[in-house]
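A common beginner's mistake is to predict each chain separately and then try to dock the pieces by hand. The better habit, illustrated here, is to supply every component at once so that their relative placement is modeled jointly.
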Amino acid sequence: MTTPDGDEARSAGEAVLVVEGLSKVFPGPPPVTAVRDCTFEVRRGEFVAITGPSGSGKTTLLSLLGLLESPTAGRYLLDGVDVIGLSDSSRCVQRAHRIGFVFQAFHLLGYRSVLENVELGLLYQGVVPKGERRRRALEVIDSVGLTGRCDGLCAHLSGGEKQRVAIARALVGQPALVLCDEPTGNLDSANSEAVLALFDDLHRSGMTVVVVTHDPAVAGRAQRNLRMADGVLTEAVQA
Amino acid sequence: MTRWGRGPTRRVRVRWRDIGGEAAAAVVQRPVRTLLTALGTILGVGAFVATNGLADTARAQVSSRFDALKATEVRVQDATPDGSNPFPADVADRLERLNGVNRAGLFYMVPDDGSLRVRTSPTLVGAGRALVPVVAAQPSAVLAALPELSVGRLYDDFHEARGERVALVGRAAASQMGITRVDNQPVVFIGDIAYTVVGVLDEVQRLPDLLLSVVIPVAAAERDFRIDGATFQVLIDTAAGAAQLAGHQAPLALRPDHPERLQSLVPPDPRRLRRQVSDDVTGLFLALSALALLIGVVAIANATLLSVVERRNEIGLRRALGARKAHIRRQITTEAAIIGLLAGVIGTSLGLLGVAITSTARDWTMTINPSTILAAPFIGLLAGAVAGLLPAIKASRTPPAETLRA
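With all components supplied together, the output reads:
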């Protein structure tokens, strides 16, 4: 697994993500406030879990952090860049270069190989030569332990393997932040444990990870827990 | 060693080759869906190629089978018949000077008031036999009928100029009258006037009535018989392609004082006929193939729209990975265009196969314009690209947060 170096090491401890008064109201009727006045920071290299009951606004908050949705109000600095008010194209650039996503449903292209799925994480970064994309994808695939399955179709993989491919795809673009939505939600306990071990490795390598989860096991592995209830985010007391 | 979180913040470009690669992979790696999507366009392009191929082939058949004999025959007749001869005496001289006219001459059937009674002896034996008609024809008219003789010779301008009493006898008439040879200078009596038979017509390619008749020079007929009330006509044999022009010019050449007195009967213009036949065929089938192609476009558009709905997660994922709306639009349009191109190639092959089978079954020579074959796949490509536009716009509007909701 990788570790921060140089500039990144020097900036360890700096805020990767600064959110102030972030709110999201879905227009009705009736209007629904999914995220209410959230303020928090995530520092570089932190492993943060956001927990809470269904419908509490966790996924909406993750959408806002991942620039998949625009907030109704508030301020959001991602890796030092004020991303509120950016155009759709600029948000795409930010997503391509600074954010990696891991989804509960994996969202792999089943008819494509493992290697092609991982390379997809670099496609929208711009002109990365095909050879360079392949080299970097193979490197990340190796780090998640799937070297032997490079050419296999994703449709033929087990749930745990699929999630490891999804993690590789999130990492291949060398993002500042990895956002995970219920990463073990579709996995059995053995596969969950393997994926969590991977997150541990990631955390140790200096990657900043924010996980939305119901799973206490995942929350327990996180360095810091935030709790969401009725759209309001609070710092949970560490058990 | 990895440095997390580096990278540009400015807008980046994704190469067309990469977008095209993604589109090609989506098309190739799901062959059944691709084939079903392409089906309408395959039929449309196939119909287009088959239509043009069959039209070209049919055009070639019309060309090769067109009756060359009829295409070189012109007749001129009295536009307002009053029983008199509207033609000048020097028909051949006037017409054979025209471009493309080989032979031309006056002919008419000598009116029979019952006094002609063609026979081989001066006495009226064999009464009750079928009457043999008498045709007066200038030598050039006989030549224009393209005759073949079984025995003897044709009469010529010398006989015509002098009004010699010579006759040609058609094969059937000769058989009826027992004339088989001319070296003994047989005669036929027309009325009470003896005509020397100089030849027996074995075959004529035009004016088949001559085979049943006795044919005599016009000058002799005018002198010996009443010709009022005859149907006077001029027969013209033209070079290939000259019939239209000769027919147009003949009335003026014959009667510059009253060209409207004469009327030309010309064969249909082979080019116009050919064009008309092929236009009819092509117009009908092109309309059908355009309809089929339209159905193909709608089919691709419909299938692509369904596919976009089905692939909502994939499109959301691509947006989450940083794809701009334009990238999604390009990919979906390119996919549809590739499907259209494939459909075009398959449709072209099937269309050609259809033309080949039809041509073979009808013993035709398969003829097809190469530009049809070259254009057809691109018509498919264009149809696909057009069909992909709407689904592409719809796909690009997929919210990137879609992936989190799935």
